[in-house]
Amino acid sequence: MCRMQAKHPPVIDPARADDGDGPLLFAALSSGDLRMTAAHSHARGQAIGALSGLLTITTERERLVVPPGYAIWIPPHHLHGLDAHGPVSAWSVYLAPGACAALPAQPQVFQVSGLLREAVLRASAWPAAGLMSAPTPAQERIAAVILDELSAAPREQLVLTMPTDRRLLKIAQALTADPADPRSLNEWAEWAAIAPRTLTRHFVSETGLSFSDWRQRARLMRAVELLAAGHAVTSVALELGYDSLSAFIAMFRREMGVAPGGFAASHAAALALP
């Protein structure tokens, strides 16, 4: 059940996300403190964008981080729960199953274009009457822009797929809890009672990433959370096990397209918006 408290009533109650025949429904949510939603799913696909604050989405196999200016795509019938880290302002778009064909079959995080943001904000002002079953020509054009922008959005590196093999999952859960753990692949294999070659082969097949790339992704996502919480860049680098601040900055810039200091500043500026 959603416990996120809205400053203003949502345009569409998320509990009614599967109502109506129209291709798109919209809801605007915001929160003044830490809230979460329990695991649930919709017959419609859902895109959730963070205007300010930080969201973490957990599915049956993935963990996804959504900073300000980013959004997550959740396909229809995909079980998911949400954590809002501190003050959050966010939007949601619900898409009819037939409108989801051009979108990924798995959850994805993507950067929100200026055009998508403005189109969603425009659509969020539409009246709920009719639940978009009879949109006007102008509304149809805005809806088409939103669908085009969602389909064309570049995917980001803020998705962490968990393995299903119990031994690999044990390792993944330990690294998620402590991404700075310095143990080598061979040490992790011995700890989980699995052959190193088996660990290497199955990690790629089950997560799509090599073990080292998966561990780096886990560190990146923790870095995003810590920076969004106001931690200094140096302290984040040390907490994640980096001996060199420059190595951490280079990794973050390579994956996120911006230095960690710039990301933190952008996050702080987003929180300051009315």
What labels describe this entry?
274 residues, alpha+beta, Arc Repressor Mutant, subunit A, 9 helices, globular, disordered N terminus
Short summary:
The model is unreliable at 1-13 (pLDDT under 50). The protein has helices at 114-123, 137-152, 166-177, 185-192, 196-207, 211-228, 233-239, 245-256, 260-272; strands at residues 24-31, 35-40, 45-59, 62-66, 70-74, 80-95, 108-111, 159-161.
Overview of the molecule:
It holds the Pfam family HTH_18. This is Helix-turn-helix domain-containing protein. GO terms for molecular function: DNA-binding transcription factor activity; sequence-specific DNA binding. 39% of the residues lie in helices and 23% in strands. It folds into two domains: 14-152, Regulatory protein AraC (Jelly Rolls), CATH 2.60.120.280; 164-272, Arc Repressor Mutant, subunit A (Orthogonal Bundle). The model is unreliable at 1-13 (pLDDT under 50). The chain is globular and about 60 Å long. The protein contains nine helices and eight strands. The protein is an alpha+beta fold. α1 packs antiparallel against α2 (137-152), α3 crosses α4 (185-192) and α6 (211-228) crosses α9. The protein has helices at 114-123, 137-152, 166-177, 185-192, 196-207, 211-228, 233-239, 245-256, 260-272; strands at residues 24-31, 35-40, 45-59, 62-66, 70-74, 80-95, 108-111, 159-161. Strands 1, 2, 3, 4, 5, 6, 7 and 8 form an eight-stranded antiparallel β-sheet that branches.
